Amino acid sequence: MALNTSPVTPPQPQTSGLSAAVNALRTFTNSLGSKGYLFVVGALVLAVGSVLSPYFMTSRNLIAVLITASVVSVLAVGQYLVIVTGGIDLSVGAVAALSSVTVGLALQAGVSWPLALLLALLVAGFVGVFNGLMIIYGGITPFIVTLAMMSIARGVAYILQTGRQVAIDDQGFLSAFTADLGPLPAPVVIAMIVMIVLAVTMSQTRYGRRLFAIGGNPDAARLSGLPIKRDIVGAYFCSSLLAGLGGVMIAAQLTEGSAIIGEGYELNAIAAVVVGGASLFGGTGDPISAVLGGLIIAVILNIMDLLGIQAQPQLIVKGAVILLAVLFTSGVGNKLPGAIRKLVFQKRYTGKGSDLPSEGKEKEKIDAAK
Amino acid sequence: MTAPAEIASRSLIAVAGVSKAYPGTQALSNIDLHIMPGEIHGIAGQNGAGKSTLVRILSGVEKPDSGTVLLDGLPVSFDNPHAAQRARIMTVHQELSLMPHLSVAENIYVGELPRTVLGTVDWRAVRSQAREQLLRLGFDLDVRAPVGSLPIAHRQAVEIAKAVSGDARVLILDEPTATLPRHDVRQLFDLLNQLKKLGIAIIYISHHFDEMYEICDKISVFRDGRRVAVHEADASRHDLILQAMLGGVSTEQSAKLQLGSSETPRLGVGRTTGEVALAVRGLRDGHDLHGIDLTLHRGEVLGVAGLSGNGQSQLAAALFGAEKSTQQSFEINGRKRHTADPAESIRLGLGLLPEERKTQGLALTMSVTENITMASLAKFSPGFFLNRGSEHRAALRMRDALVIKVASVGQPVGNLSGGNQQKVALAKWLVSGVKTLIIVEPTRGVDVGAKLEIYELIRQFVEDGGSVIVITSEIDEALMCDRVLILSRGRISGSVDRAEIDEHGEAAVLNRFN
Ligand SMILES: Nc1ncnc2c1ncn2[C@@H]1O[C@H](COP(=O)(O)OP(=O)(O)OP(=O)(O)O)[C@@H](O)[C@H]1O
Ligand SMILES: [Mg+2]
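# adenosine-5'-triphosphate complex -> structure
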């Protein structure tokens, strides 16, 4: 074989303005920690919003966005608990509707509002426990169980409400869920409390650790003696409970309970979680990122509203956002930036000549002792 | 002596100046290595030395940060594993990469299924060829069975059959015999010698030196990502190789590491009490276990030996309550076991290090610390909140005791080298505070130095009042126990006590195999 004695020129990574910019951006996002990219995406979405609509940056609009985001976030945090175990809960939108109807009916019946709230949460929590038990003891996949429950819960809501909707005029209830608490609207405060409680639960308690373990490897978790059945039921319970809370929050905003509330909210919640970077295979992510994801989703929805985009195209955008988020948080997405950079900047060494390394370096140490 | 340049150009496969860094670890630095046609080149090195990293680079799984891979003296760059396979570089990775739901035959021929004239898959040909490949390795398996249903040794055989079924020019085997019973290693070696005659270049990675001296021509030694030496593969070089690998060994340590050292360590301390740690009568699981009676005394190390595939992992699972079983009586540490449930077993003070660490023992996305404390969360954090400080200290303690090579204990376990993952799985039980432990293949995949550390830790565990069941297919390991039961086709076919072992050596156990 021909020997090549030409001097070595190790392939130098070429620097250009673009790659420097990419690098700078990367260092910046890294410096923000694991949530860095969320802030960047968030800023990007805000910038797009303010360019596209003059109303976007008004305080009135921003508060409206926050209120939408708070409902999405409450559902998303619950959804996150299920997703971290490797499951999914498609029933949250329907559960929100059921709970809004329940709270409305209870208030109409003259029940005091804290009791009505408790009743709605109880109904929602019951649905969650049922989901969990079907998954664990029925051996049915979460997708199927919660898909079926999505239909059942909404059906029950329709039957319960009888009329078109259940009007709510209990002032105590309305002010508790809509009034301003200090500088912030009540829904925002509720969402923040939920987020903080769950963030602490996930990162600082044994229950949180166990959920991560279940999502990471259910077999290993079981063989480590963790009560995985109980914990999984617990996760679906929490998800439903928070969906119920979300439903009550919507009911207060609309001053009515209704079976059509929360249509498609399961998608918003799932989108928020995956935009927040959690893997649908479980074992990763955190509630705060899910809330940031929820904020981004809410802003995107708001921009589309401001632009007068109809509900139907909005569905397309929402689906696309989920696909994009999953693409970027899964393996493919991780490789994508590198692959693009390589395409743009790097010449591959497949040539036969100048890339040959110096053969002289290869020093045989065979039996050096000899 | 030929000029180095000429050697490099005549080599079939070579790497020049290859480096690879992971966050916190320089896995490979400036590796030069070349292998001639028909050469079997061994790579030795401690856990985490970088062996598998080199394999991943050669097989197109990962790209080097710098340096070149040369095939026939020409630089090549593989964008993905498929590209390496097209260049006829076939690899058996340390972590098996089979698809559990596909059949044995489909796994062997995945991607290149033989076709009939009509263009449909020729299933008859697929099956008969797959069978043939496995028979070459001495395995007579049902090629229609899904791979997921096979014991781990058979899966390893399928993986090897898959690699040699193609028209390989370069064959890379990363610890192929870690899960392969010793008697099947013979068949593998016969096959490798045939391939060698065909001029195939073979890279062979193992922690078993006797194997390497037998099959390899040369052995490269890796330490901390560097290739620190290369020697003729000959037992007479064992000391030099150990020195290079461990970076200097004490004479005492080296005596223990000798091949076939007369000073076989004992696992037990020989202070068995009459107290019962675990006793089961008539254990059956309905398919693989047919009425097993077993008693483990406090302070005892009980070996369960037997050729693999005789019910070892099933026995471990049934004893731990991971699988349902029926039995006349079951007692752990003096208390009756009521249900087959790992949580209950742990409560009664019993732990299990399963055979399949990666799928059953570890959560790969979680950190080293989180894995180590997984079975004893309540012990470390009795209160409502996690006590990260005490978890961290325990993890550091285990890292030092088991010489686990990690950049930090906060690193995900999935990023550790194969042998270091094994150590984490063991560490989980050592910190858990259980008094009785079932360990399946205690030293699988760990390097020679770590092997001694693990034996020492088991001895320490027993010294501190623990009792251990060691389920092993390594005869040497069985001989270290206080007493050995022979497991054969789901039954205990014999029992050998210490006196017999001392008198007859391995014959005492081997004679009971059938
Ligand atoms: N994806 C990764 N991220 C971070 N570190 C990694 C990753 N993969 C490997 N490493 C580190 O690189 C080093 C070399 O690992 P490698 O798997 O090559 O070891 P090895 O020699 O094959 O060891 P073993 O005998 O245990 O299989 C280890 O310290 C390991 O922790
Ligand atoms: Mg390895």
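# post-check
Chain A has one domain: 35-330.
Chain A has a mean pLDDT of 82.
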